[in-house]
Design brief:
Largest sheet: 5 strands, antiparallel
CATH topology of one domain: SH3 type barrels
Order of helices and strands: HHHHEEHEEEH
Helix content: 40-55%
Low-confidence stretches: none
Number of helices: 6
Mean pLDDT: 79
Distance between the termini: 58 Å
Oligomer: single chain
Amino acid sequence: MRLTMRKLSRFIVRGLFIILPLLITIELVRWLLSTIESMLSPAVEAFVPAHWYIPGMAMLAFLALCALVGFTAYSRKGARFWKFPGRILASIPGINKVYGIIQDLFEVMSGENFEDESVVMVKMPNSEVELIGIVTKKGTEQNDKIADLMGEEQLAVFLPMAYNVGGYMIIVPKSCTRNLSMKPAEALQLVLSGGLGSQKAPDTSTK
């Protein structure tokens, strides 16, 4: 009886680990879609007759808007124009902190503002321990508050923490780092999961 109950509890736990990530992901996507639909549907219904409106049109309109903004942002004038709302939010005390954190998070996940060799393995001093980090600043950058505090041969590296949305920013010499063939988003996912995910092993060769 004890053995049967033990096996049953293992089956339940294993089932939870399979089902819960699926349910949570589906629920988050459903919440996001329903939020966008409820926010934009009144605007769409103002241009579309009520008997023509189909649920989901607001989401399609949102995707079209995203495509339009992304297309116009490729030009210099368009990029400057779409930076203006962000500058307004960044100038409001309190809100600028929240906006800055969200903007930085999306930039890290997209990897657009990072160079190819932005993910590194950092060797701790007087130790054989190495940590995966993301290069956020270089000492050679101009007109940057952090770069101005660094030497030309130093790097600012963000070290994310496993199972946490926190981390540490450290200043290290370039000689203490070696480049990894990974994108910032892949590095974050790997570290945040504690290395327990099913991703393929990264190329750790030095470039």
